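Here is an idea for our session: we take a single protein and study its fold together. Start from the sequence, derive the backbone structure tokens from it, and show both lines together. Once you have written the record down, we can walk along the chain together:
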Amino acid sequence: MKLYFSTKQIPQLQHLSLTERLAAIHIAQGKLIGPEKLLLNVLKMLLVIPVFILIIQVATNWMAIVWALLITLLYPVLIKPVQYGLCAKYIPQPNPHPEGE
């Protein structure tokens, strides 16, 4: 699986506008099979659960909020490339020669 840090890096989506790329990713995400969805959700939970644990610890350790914020900021940096990589194979290749030509 190749990781993409932006939807513009996905070859099938390079010619599309931002809204069209996001729509294509959304459609492709619906086509993910069970194990792929499970992998994505487990990765999300591995980042979300420590944030809540750190928030609980703020009462005794104020530095925990800094770590919670850092993990929260890293969430899209770590999750989106995996999501785009999993979805890329479900995005059809653009047709270089439309049938009308």
